[in-house]
Amino acid sequence: MKLPPFSVHRPRSVREASRLLDELGDEAAAYCGGTELLLTMKLGLAGYAHLVDLKRVDALGGIARHGGSLRIGAAATHYEIESSPAVRAWCPAMAAMSSRVANLRVRSVGTLGGNLCFADPHSDPATFLIAAGATMLCQKGDNTRRVPAGEFVTGPYQTLLEPGELLVAIELPAPPDGTGLAHVRMKLHERPAVTVAAMVRVTDSVVSHARLAIGSVGVVPVSAAGAESLLGADAADFEARSDACAEQAAVTSRPLSDGDCSPEYLRHLVRVHSRQALAAAFAAARSGGS
Q1: What's the pTM?
Q2: 149 burial level (CB within 10 Å; 0-12, 13-18, 19+)
């Protein structure tokens, strides 16, 4: 497999990259790690006359606290995230999730921003960031906007980024004490068949906040309905309530058969993994949070 001919542009700033993408239009694509885009081009599934290489844009890198959030640059690789002391201290579940993305070769090159912008329906980070309440920082020229993680992916391989707009960073809010996050998934081949992430917060021994996100079974990752039914649950009734929540998530999910799993089996996977994620998040919350 050979790549089709293309020109490479290497901007030094977000403004310059935005201008290039605006000028080149549909004939151009931005990339950093390129693990998914270049493979797609090799397979003949996509073709661009111009590639805008973002590796030299320093503003897209780095992992550091910023106000009340942890800011992860869009060009941070999955390996940088999983091994970052700042991420491990701020949100250990984020580091753990990143350590399970694809394989070490991909994690060493592939970036979080690239994964999110490619918007493959089978994505670990997109689902996790919804449960974590993350915000996407998007920029075009000098204009920036913040987008909730659950609104960023709009369809298979589609995001709400406007022409010339870049995802520059992902912001993780500080998890309050008593907040547990959990991410579980099942892989059949290289990509997950189902991805579930849960956030549970316990205050005065009862659930005060909960969120459940489902991905990899449908066209986009989504917040599952029914998590609000967990509010007020304690150790005595959490399991029963989480079973009901998992059942509702399975019933309301809209799985697409991908040739390996039937919709019925995918609903079963949603049900089972939702129970696991909620139980793990609740246990973490009761132990002080992680």
Answers
A1: 0.95
A2: buried
CB of 135 closer than 8 Å to CB of 233 = no
Task: Please tell me the predicted confidence (pLDDT) of residue 71.
Answer: 98
**Contact assessment for residue 110 and residue 148, using Cβ atoms and an 8 Å cutoff:** no
Last residue within a domain, chosen from 173, 194, 217 = 173
What secondary structure letter does DSSP report for 5?
Answer: P
SS3 call for 40: helix
Closest CA to 30 of 40, 42, 21, 39: 21
Please check whether residues 127 and 192 belong to one and the same domain: no
Report pLDDT digits (tens) over 185-244.
999 877 899 999 999 999 999 999 999 999 999 999 999 989 999 999 999 999 999 999
pLDDT at 181: 97
Its domain, for residue 67, covers 62-173
Q: Which two tokens stand for residue 229?
A: 């039914």
Looking at the fold, whether 32 and 89 belong to one and the same domain comes out as no
Structure tokens at 274: 């939702």
**Which residue, among 197, 232, 194, has the nearest Cα to 211 in the 3D structure?**
197
Strands (E), the chain: 7-9, 28-31, 50-53, 63-66, 69-73, 135-140, 143-148, 153-155, 158-159, 166-173, 179-187, 192-203, 206-215, 222-223
The pLDDT tens digits for 100-133 are: 998 889 999 999 999 999 999 998 999 999 999 9
In the chain the first and final C-alpha atoms are separated, in Å, by 44
Of 122, 156, 173, which marks where a domain is finished? Answer: 173
Specify whether the CB–CB gap between 187 and 195 falls below 8 A.
no
